[in-house]
Amino acid sequence: MSIVSGLAIYFIIWWMVLFTILPFGVTSQKDAGDVILGTEHGAPIRSRVRLKMLTTTIVSLIIFGGLYYARFELGLGLDDVPLLPRF
Which phi and psi angles does 52 have, rounded to 5°? Predict the structure, then answer.
């Protein structure tokens, strides 16, 4: 795998993990009972984007490392994935 291919795969994994992690720990203004005039009621009180980006980076590195290990150390590929039985 070239460096560019590895970065592209990591970038895709990173975005998928980010969208998975974003909703965790979010408290909306409506849930907290503190709605600021002129804002959406579902807007988060504290989004903690930096923490979520750090968490996303760590989880993405773990997933990418596992995929890299499975592909290049164990030699697994798409041909090794069992297909579902066809009826």
Answer: -70, -35
Model confidence over 31-59: pLDDT tens digits? 888 888 888 888 888 889 999 999 999 99
Residue 28's region, left for phi above 0, alpha for psi from -120 to 50, else beta, is: beta
The answer to whether residues 29 and 45 touch, using CB atoms and an 8 Å cutoff, is yes
Q: By the 8 A CB rule, do 30 and 41 touch?
A: yes
CA gap 63, 11 in Å, rounded: 12
CB under 8 Å to 52, separation ≥6 — which residues?
18, 21, 22, 24
CB 60 within 8 A of CB 66: no
Would you list the domain boundaries of the chain?
3-80
pTM above 0.90, yes or no: no
From the CB of residue 44, how many other CB atoms can be counted at a distance below 10 Å? 17
